[in-house]
Structure prediction request, 273 residues.
Amino acid sequence: MSSLTYTIEEANQLFIEGKYKEIEFVCHNSEFCDATDLKQQKKLFSSLKRLKGVMPYRQDWSDKDNKQISLAVVITDKENESKLLKTIKQIAKDLNVKIDIIDYINDSKLDSILNKTLENIIVEELYLEDTYKDYYVLYHSTDSDFFDSVKYDMAKKGDRFFNPLGNGLYFSTNKDFSKGFGKNTFYYLLPKSAKIKKVTFKSWTQSTFLSIVKKVLKKYNKDYWKDTDISDKVEINRLGTDAPISSLNEFSEWLKIKYDVTDPQPFTKFIQT
Prediction:
């Protein structure tokens, strides 16, 4: 019976051969004055994305009280690893971003970066700006597991929400707002050439929301001016100061209470596109 033994150097080399070198930089942390400046981190990230043979990525570890963004880069071109490492160090030095850790990662972690499943990875940044400059980046959060295709007929509303525009997937341009609707967040690229209705906060609060309210009330044979008293109007105006999806959900609840509407219908046809 024979045994196979390796020197420490040989064992280390075998370990490294199936690995990829990763450089982690000192992260941005709003609680610490000596953390990496966020603007400088973004500049470094942008520079690394244009460097062939590497895969840079950022992760968002922020909470409501603290903004914390990490940046790392994986060298995928092993033949030019030493040269690329030297280049990365120089770029980081020029931008005054310090290196925290240099280590090796396995195929599994690299796959999670490439497949955009790594914890808290900022997905839309994995693409070069030229890839999505003609798109709006929208976010959808859900308690469901991640999925790679959209099936609108299978979409279900959250337990706390009424789908005021009918069944489907609801998106927001605000990632933090979207997170309030589920633990898992994914993004969608909408072509800027698509026909959409843009609603600013000002137009929503001053005209769009009230226009929808009037049309919905009319459907239930109610007139906004004649059948609502001053307290009702004050409450309706208050509802209109929230984000559109929240305003419509709250208005549907108001309908249930005020007029005993047990099953409000989607408001789609009341919104002009």
